[in-house]
Structure formats: structure tokens, C-alpha cells
Amino acid sequence: MVGVNLERAIELLTAHVNPIAETEDVTLLEAVGRVAATDYVATFDNPPFDRSPLDGYALKSSETPGAFKVIGEECAGDFFTGEVKSGETLRIMTGAAMPKGSDCVIRQEDVELDGENIFVRQRLRHHENYCFAGEDIKAGALLIAKDTTLTAAHVAILASQGVAEVKVYRRARIAIASTGDELIQPGTELSAGKIYNSNLYLLAARLIEMNFTPKILYNLPDDADTCAERIYSLQDELDLLITTGGVSVGKKDIMHDVVKKVGERIFWRVLMKPGAPVIGWTCGRFLGVALSGNPFAAYATFELLTRPVLAKLTRRADILYSRGHGTLADDFPKKSPGRRFIRAQVKGDKIFLPSRHESGALYSAVGCNALVDIAAGTDKLSAGAEVETILL
Ligand code: AMP
Ligand code: MG
């Protein structure tokens, strides 16, 4: 069979991808899952002042044990401008600034209170129960490096530094379309010979799970001219177009003609099962990945081929999949003359296989979190076999 191997196909596709360079400023909450377009450096210490880590009394440790006169109190958010002198203490709440003259805090529960005085029985160390300015974040520290995918923790760190607007790369412009005259939109009535369109939802939902915002083109008819026209009209609006269906050798496999009409083919066919007849192509500035319409084929090739493309396009290393290995808990009763990927569920170092593996079978993909990568020329596999996996 002519075609390129998976690794070469990924190389060819990613060679046609330029990481997004345009940036925009978004609010903190819009920044979750986006990619920082600049380094973020701490502009001040956090906490900004020495503070108490508990509710208690601030005093001089060198005077403990002993009796102290309570000269006032300070809650978080207050600022006591006086000074704690010899024999004195300030009642202090968690988060309030350490008053001048004090160097430790005794827990409220550990003192004996007698009117305006407290008695401390224990000896406290210098800086006991004492939280220093900058102990969390030092001014000048690199908080977030450019190209980091921002998580909730990053957003919180930016908030703690008073940052309200975050510079991120613009969103990837990804469109999804299915092709096939047999496909019916969910929500409308099914008729003889037709099936509901599931690929469109599978791939769009997967992109949404990865925090992308795909443009849904819905179903395109099995007519090369109509498809070509629709796709060509988007050439300046997209970074990536993912289509399913129409890539094999059947009468209605129109994607070959579409590519001829409005684009340039990079390759056709990847040496793997399922989903071999993938077309990699370009149209103007966008990259096209045309996947087979068989649901599991579309799913597997989407994961294997487009995730590296998405990772490079958006600089998101978190989109890349990782490789692993483990022991099959079930038999796989077919020979693999060519390289094959089968769906699986990895639990610890055990790999469970579903009962059905046809590329048209979608149900058995539920709960799967990995693909087993079976090398060309592998015989049937029995439970106990060591296999390579791709963790999705
Ligand atoms: P194709 O790649 O267009 O030859 O389609 C291969 C098989 O996948 C056929 O059985 C199609 O009916 C089915 N198929 C194609 N596209 C979809 C889709 N979007 N949703 C569900 N099944 C599909
Ligand atoms: Mg078709």
C-alpha cells in the first residue's frame, strides 16, 4: 500500500503549521486554558508585608514566659501604626500585619486572659508563628513563562499580583465539517438509508474538551463543487480544517476532487489501521486534515494526527499525547499484517480491551483512554502480552 507512516505524516503536517503569533488581552477568567503570550514576573513580594498566620497575640519572644498588657487589636485589613513595647502585646487576627516591636505570635488558645492582661506560660522562639513578606512570591520571580497554558493556579497567582488583564495568543481558528449524503442532523427524523451524523459531534466535542472553540460547518454534501466552494470561502478565516468522510476510493469520495480544485495535497494514506485514507492538504493559509468517515477511524486519526498539529499551532504542550506500555488483560484475536491501533482502557499497568474493534463501531470507544499501538507483522495477541500504548 502506498502512503506514509504515522510519524512521517505528523512531520509533514506540522511542517505546514506556524504557531499562532497574534495576541490579545483577556480578563483573568477568560485566560483559563489559554496560552500566555508573555513572561509574567512578580512586581512585588507576596504577601506584601510580614503577617500573622493565626489568631493570637503579637509580642517580644525574648520576654516569654511572662505577663503582657493588651494594648489593642488588629484584624486582617487593618494596619496598626503603633509599636509593641516591652511588656505589651497586640491582639492580632490571621492575615493582619505584624506590628512594629513584635517578633512572634502566641496562639489565642495558649494564653491565660485576665482583664487587660495575658499570661504566657511557654517560651516562644524568635519568629515563631510569623509569616514573612515575600515568602510565597519574591518580587522579580518569574511567575509564568511565555507559552504556558494557564491553569486555575496561574490565574490565581496573576490575581494575587493585581493583574486583571492577561496577554494571550489569539484562539486557534479550527473548523469541523463532515461529508456524506447519508448523514442526518440529530433532532430531525431518520429516514431509510440514512444515519445520524456522529463524527461532527465527536470531533467538535473533543476539541471543546481541549478548550478549543471550533467553528462547526455541519454536513457538506457529497458534491465536490459545492464542498470546494464552501471550503474556499473560508481560506482566510481558518488555521485548520478537519473534515470526515469522502477520502477513500468510492464513487462519492469527493475530497480528492475538492483538494484538486482548491488546494494542494501533502499526502494521502497513512500506513495504519483504522483510518488509513487520510488526506493532508493545504488551502491558502490553512491546513486541511481530511479523515475517514468511519467513526472510530475518524476518532483514532484525529487523536494521532491532529493533536500534534494543534499542539504546535497553539504552543500547547498539554495537547500532546504521551506513550506508555503495559500488559494486556484481554486477548486480541486478530493478526496485524499492517500497523494497527486499537482502543483500550488503561487501569494501572493493565490494559483492558473492549469486545468490538470495527472502525464503524463507536459504542466501544466509551471509557477508552488509550490506543494500543500494534506493530506491522504482529500475530494475534493474548492476555499477558506486553504492548505499547498511546495515552489519550
Ligand atoms: P466514508 O469515509 O465517507 O466512506 O464513510 C465511511 C463510513 O462511515 C460509512 O459507513 C459512513 O456512513 C460512515 N460515516 C461517514 N461520516 C459519518 C459521520 N459524520 N457520522 C457517522 N458515520 C459516518
Ligand atoms: Mg462518505
What's this model, at a glance?
The protein has helices spanning 6-15, 152-160, 199-209, 224-232, 255-262, 295-314; strands at 23-27, 40-41, 56-59, 66-74, 88-92, 104-107, 111-114, 117-120, 142-144, 165-169, 174-179, 183-184, 195-196, 215-220, 240-244, 264-268, 279-283, 286-291, 322-328, 340-347, 350-352, 370-374, 386-391.
What does this structure look like?
This protein is an alpha/beta fold. The protein has four domains: 6-21 and 171-319, Molybdenum Cofactor Biosythetic Enzyme, Chain A, CATH 3.40.980.10; 23-46 and 135-169, Alpha-Beta Complex (Molybdopterin biosynthesis moea protein, domain 2); 56-120, Molybdopterin biosynthesis moea protein, domain 3 (Molybdopterin biosynthesis moeA protein, domain 3); 322-391, Beta Barrel (Beta-clip). It contains six helices and 23 strands. It has helices at 6-15, 152-160, 199-209, 224-232, 255-262, 295-314, and strands at residues 23-27, 40-41, 56-59, 66-74, 88-92, 104-107, 111-114, 117-120, 142-144, 165-169, 174-179, 183-184, 195-196, 215-220, 240-244, 264-268, 279-283, 286-291, 322-328, 340-347, 350-352, 370-374, 386-391. A six-stranded mixed β-sheet has the order 6-3-5-4-8-7, with no helix packed on it. Strands 14-11-15-18-17-16 form a six-stranded mixed β-sheet, with helices on both faces. Strands 19-21-20-22-23 form a five-stranded mixed beta barrel. A hairpin with a 2-residue loop joins β17 and β18. The longest helix has 20 residues, at 295-314. It is elongated. 36% of the residues are buried. The model has no long low-confidence stretch (mean pLDDT 97). The structure holds adenosine monophosphate (AMP) and magnesium ion. Magnesium ion binds next to loops. Residues 178, 180, 182-183, 195, 197-200, 244-248, 250, 292-295, 360 line the site of adenosine monophosphate.
